[in-house]
Amino acid sequence: MGNSLPNFLVCGTMKGGTTSLYYYLREHPEIYLPTKEEIHFFDLHFGRGIGFYKKYFADVRKGHKAVGEVTPDYMYLEHIPELIHETIPDVKLIFILRNPVDRAYSHYWHAVTKWGVEYLPFERAIEAEPERISRGTAHHRYYSYLDRGKYALQLKRFRKYFDDDQMLVLITEEFKRDPVESLKRVFEFLGVDPNRYNFENLSRRHNIGYSPKIPKLHMTFNRIFGARVGPKELVLGYWYRKMLTLLRRNRKLWELFFTPGYPKLDLGTRDRLMEYFAPYNRELESLLGRKIDAWLRTKQTSQGSLSGSPG
Hints:
Layout: E1 8-12, H1 18-26, E2 31-32, H2 41-45, H3 50-54, E3 66-70, H4 73-76, H5 80-87, E4 92-97, H6 100-115, H7 122-133, H8 139-142, H9 151-159, E5 167-171, H10 172-177, H11 179-190, E6 210-212, H12 215-226, H13 231-249, H14 251-257, E7 258-260, H15 267-288, H16 293-301
Parallel strand pairs: 1-3, 1-4, 2-3, 4-5
Antiparallel strand pairs: 6-7
């Protein structure tokens, strides 16, 4: 079945739990996902042609009823829904959405620690975001802390091309509270048998967030080596991020420099961001036709470090 194309995509959101969902779905015998978690075909490799894409699904077998891939950037980038529709118009789409305040803060620490591109404090970084993402470079992806949390706008772009029954929207906090029921919804949506899945292996955390043990030193390295925009500087930044990736693969070595979790988000900043996102969240609730009570509770219950942050 080497000519297979996916019949489902997990499109986002970044830092919403897509990595955990990827690993959970891979455990179902009727679901096929490539060994590479994020393929980035529609945003980075579309010009390489459909043959390039099909190579990722060369190992699909007859028993695989659901064939998919997970790339959370698909949800955010404006041109992606049309490309997906042109290529696989009958595809099913899964979105998992996290409280946008927590998502932004998790994204920030990901940019600090794993990408090595952020060197500003969180409050200054979100103030600088509009100017940064206006550059239209890779920085648009790296620094879009608040912009990615405007979920309704992103979902509307997909609804322009896909029917409602092709789209499943999950809420990260609800998934964490009841992963079994949430996965059953996913399995029903994908048309696979939930009875063939072992629900006892859902406690493992994936893509745990880290922060540097010596923040000022790490931020200095990020500013000098990681946050580069010119052609020559991009090469330097590439090798700096490559070094961080290699370091991360050796957990003992990695944890000499980084610690699980991140500092508590300032309560005043959290409240300001809750207020900032309130109209966008109401727009999302209207679009989905439901309340998202878990995000209202987050204001009182998620003040501490997010050591098990979704990926």
